[in-house]
Amino acid sequence: MIEIKKSPTSEGEFNRGVFATHDIAKGTLIHEAPVLPYPNEQHQLIEHTVLADYVFEYGENHCAIILGYGMLFNHAYEPNATYEINFDKHTFDYYAYTDIKAGDEIFINYNGDVDDKELLWFHRK
C-alpha cells in the first residue's frame, strides 16, 4: 500500500517520503508504526542527536521515537493523512484523512491535529 521514495518536498540529506502505491480510500489504516517511549527527563539527551527529528509527544510524561515508515511521513499543514496514538499496542496508527491517489506522497500534520496551523520549529527560523 505504501513505499518509500525520494520526496521533492523534503529537505536534508536523504529527501525521503512515504508514497501510496495504489489508491487509498479516506479512513483506511495506512500503517501501524511501533514506538520506543522514554521519560520526558531523558529528552534533553535525545535533542543532541539526529533522533530528535523523529520524536513525538507520547502522553503527559513521555516522548516516543517513531519507528517503521512512521518516521518518514513528511509534514503538511493541509495533510492527506492523520495519526492516532495507540497506547495499548505502543504504535502510532496512520489513517487516510482524504482519498489518496496512487503515486501521491502521504503527508501528516506534525502538530498532531489536521487543522492546527501553528508554525513548527523548522518554519520559525
TrEMBL record:
Classification via SUPFAM superfamilies: SET domain
Domain of life (superkingdom): Bacteria
Domain SET: 1-111
Pfam families according to UniProt: SET (PF00856)
Gene Ontology terms, MF aspect: histone H3K37 methyltransferase activity
Name of this protein: Nuclear protein SET
Lineage: Bacteria, Bacillati, Bacillota, Bacilli, Bacillales
